[in-house]
Design a protein that fits this description.
Layout (H helix, E strand, L loop, with lengths): L6 H20 L12 H5 L12 H11 L12 E2 L8 H13 L9 H16 L7 E5 L2 H17 L3 H4 L5 E5 L5 H9 L7 E3 L4 H13 L3 E8 L11 H11 L2 E5 L24 E5 L11 E5 L2 H8 L32 H36 L4 E3 L7 E6 L4 H18 L3 E7 L2 E7 L7 H12 L2 H6 L1
Parallel strand pairs: 1-11, 3-4, 3-5, 5-6, 6-7
Antiparallel strand pairs: 2-8, 7-8, 9-10, 10-12, 11-12
The structure holds pyridoxal-5'-phosphate (PLP).
């Protein structure tokens, strides 16, 4: 009923869409990173429910006018804000194919499930996990962290906790630098944010915190380490933390959203030593992996633990010996979702079309941009580097007479740059100092973009005269 009445016409519009997209991606540099959407554009999205059909080309024209020019900008080479990947033409095409097939990867017997399994195997190879490890695509690292927490909870409290609920005595440990989604995960899991201790990620402080909690009758169960912190890209001592967790019988989880895919680069991999010992790793392909959003992933060393947390019975999900319902274990047994899209396809295409080696080189390039920026910042009398550069993130500020003034100036610089539409860093706080944060995740960003960023920061004469 909903198939085109005129396939030829739909095909032509589809081809036009593709041509427009290719043209756009090829000439991204000629467009602004980001454009503020005026009220007239925003008001457009308060329209009532459309009762009658509109021609597809009219809807496409509307898309081109009201949506396309006002996107978030992360695909643009000048985008350096937050931590977002740039996507690729390959990923875009694979996403189109996946949408056309409209596969549901919750379960049943079809090859798309093996494509997802293939990614688990490739990741296990890359991160030196056993071949028996389990893995699952999820929306993002936030959800992967949440799932890891639930698995660790079941590991600590037994499967009866699925019936009884969580123990209020459970305690987890992570550093101040950990992403806010981990705190949210504790809240969502019913453990409460007070179930998460914020401690420096070194063995001495961890030992003291764990011993104290145990002496008070509490139950330490998980350590959450960072393979690249969100603010600065710093990497915890994963080997030491692994040894500690093993000794104390704690679940060792790593948030690898920022850095885990650094394993693709022989130059960066040594910084991540110890990642291979994690009980679980949360990561995503939509940042450094350049796979179009969303492509989060959880990898778990012991598949049984993941199944014990999520597998559930359902009469209409009964498995069969033959036919479409064949297979003992379905992907829905490994996570909270039953219906699941074919996220694996765009990741599979990306890894195959570029190859692990060139993806590793792209990752090195983004780290080189950060080192290059840091060198120039250190050489400038007006700029201050606020954190060491470990991977691809640089935090710095324009110096001013007082902290208050410096925070105001740097906030204003970032806002001005974002509005300018040429380069777009974001901000963060480092020891109370507002930092300009340039996170180089986009594979399209060049040295000239870094030069432009620093020149523009130094050029903000308006602020210099106001100091
Ligand atoms: C360290 C870290 N963990 C988790 C997240 C959340 O990841 P996602 O946006 O894929 O949910 C981020 C996002 O930047 C991050 O940097």
């Amino acid at each position: 009923m909903l198939d085109p009445k005129n396939w030829e016409e739909t095909k032509q519009i589809g081809h036009r869409m593709l041509d427009d997209l290719f043209e756009y991606l090829e000439h991204l540099r000629d467009t602004p990173v980001w454009t503020y959407a005026p009220d007239a554009i925003r008001d457009h999205f308060h329209a009532p429910l459309p009762e009658q059909p509109q021609p597809l080309d009219a809807v496409y024209d509307e898309f081109k006018k009201y949506i396309w020019p006002y996107i978030g900008g992360n695909i643009h080479p000048g985008f350096m804000g937050w931590a977002q990947g740039g996507g690729t033409a390959v990923g875009m095409l694979a996403e189109l194919l996946a949408a056309g097939l409209n596969a549901n990867l919750g379960g049943r017997d079809h090859i798309p499930i093996l494509v997802e399994r293939q990614i688990t195997l490739w990741l296990s190879e890359l991160l030196h996990f056993p071949k028996t490890a389990s893995g699952l695509f999820v929306t993002g690292t936030s959800l992967a962290n949440f799932m890891a927490l639930l698995i660790a909870k079941t590991n600590a409290s037994g499967t009866s906790s699925r019936v009884e609920g969580v123990s209020p005595l459970l305690r987890g440990y992570t550093s101040q630098a950990t992403h806010s989604c981990v705190i949210k995960a504790f809240e969502m899991a019913g453990l409460g944010s007070k179930g998460l201790r914020i401690v420096p990620m070194n063995v001495e402080d961890l030992q003291a915190a764990v011993d104290k909690d145990r002496s008070e009758g509490l139950q330490p169960f998980i350590v959450i380490a960072n393979a690249g912190t969100v603010d600065t890209g710093a990497i915890d001592d994963l080997q030491a933390l692994h040894r500690f967790c093993k000794k104390e019988k704690l679940w060792f989880h790593i948030d690898g959203a920022i850095g885990a895919l650094g394993m693709l680069s022989p130059r960066i991999a040594p910084l991540l030593k110890g990642i291979e010992h994690a009980d679980s790793i949360a990561l995503d392909f939509h940042k450094w992996g350049q796979v179009p959003y969303e492509a989060g992933f959880i990898l778990v060393r012991d598949a049984k633990k993941q199944l014990e947390t999520f597998a559930a019975e359902g009469a209409y999900l009964k498995r069969a010996k033959k036919g479409m319902a064949a297979g003992d274990i379905w992907p829905c047994d490994y996570g909270p979702n039953l219906s699941r899209g074919f996220q694996a396809l765009k990741t599979w295409f990306t890894i195959k079309a570029y190859g692990a080696e060139s993806l590793g080189k792209m990752i090195e390039h983004t780290c080189d941009l950060a080192s290059y920026a840091a060198k120039k910042i250190l050489a400038s009398d007006h700029l201050e580097l606020l954190a060491p550069v470990t991977l691809n993130i640089v935090c710095f500020r324009y110096k001013a007479a007082s902290l208050k003034r410096s925070n105001e100036i740097n906030q204003a610089i970032v806002e001005e740059l974002q509005l300018s539409g040429r380069v777009a860093p974001s901000t963060t706080l480092i020891d109370g100092k507002l930092a300009i944060r340039a996170a180089f995740f986009n594979h399209r960003t060049s040295y000239a973009d870094v030069d432009y960023l620093l020149t523009r920061v130094l050029d903000t004469k308006v602020f210099q005269t106001q100091q």
